[in-house]
Design brief:
Pfam families: BD-FAE. This protein is an alpha/beta fold and 314 residues long. The protein contains ten helices and eight strands.
Length: 314
Amino acid sequence: MIDRRQFVRYGLGAMAAASMSPFAHAQDADKKVFLDYTQKQLDDAYTQTVWAPNAKQVIEGYTRTSEEVRQKLPPTTYAYGNKPSENLDVFAPQGARNLPVMVFIHGGAWQMLSKDDSSGPAPTFVGAGAIYVAINFDNMPGNTLPGMVDQCRRALAWVGANARRFGGDPERIYVSGHSSGGHLTAVMLTTDWKAHGAPAQLLKGGVVMSGMGDLAPVVQSVRGSYVKLSAAQVVEFSPIKQLDKTNCPALVAWGTLESPEFKRQNRELADALAGRARLAGVFQVRGANHFEVVNELNRPDSELSRATLALMNI
């Protein structure tokens, strides 16, 4: 077993937050502290329902809101690959031409949700004169993490190559995602696009919401029961280990009611991006748990929406 101290690296701000977490003075009989999680503590740290009692209602809200948005603002669906699941929804203003494009990658612990649950932010972007794209891909257990990464990369490459078909500007493609989709978004931001047949500067910016930059602790948690990766793949798909490939700015956001470990993951990713002059901004959404953070993009007047639109220069 890897000593969990090996994957925890703190700045002063993170240390202060850790000292206030319930893990700092755990009530376990062995009195473990934050840097020495018990297995249960680590499992709980990566089980967001432990920290969000309203998770079911919020997730159901994604679906309900998305249905309402699609009734008022019907998208056009395109295929980016040969599998039935490999499609995406494009929400565009009438008469769209050369508009910036925001591509969204849904969350769901790599196991659930789809593009059909991801329409909520569309009015924010369309109303601002941009195009919003929600991509679909296969979830686990029918897929693997490398398979998801491949599908997301192909979807983004397709958007870049076909943007003009739906009124987009191929020179202004952005990506965003939440939770496991936040992780996948960070992977997209650390992708060598030229090696995947796309322009090196395919992406002009990104928004990582409540994601994970380091998979080392993730695969040691309960999530390791279905996120099966080799040691080399843990490094390959840990964005914080691949930041030398990042060539555009990114926003990082998380909720103040998330688990201490998710706060640490996002804080460290933000710090690492700042160290490479790639951090566009940090947003701690006050009073929001893990599942509520993404709903900030449903409100055009939210601080996160305004910063995202500013990142897109609109």
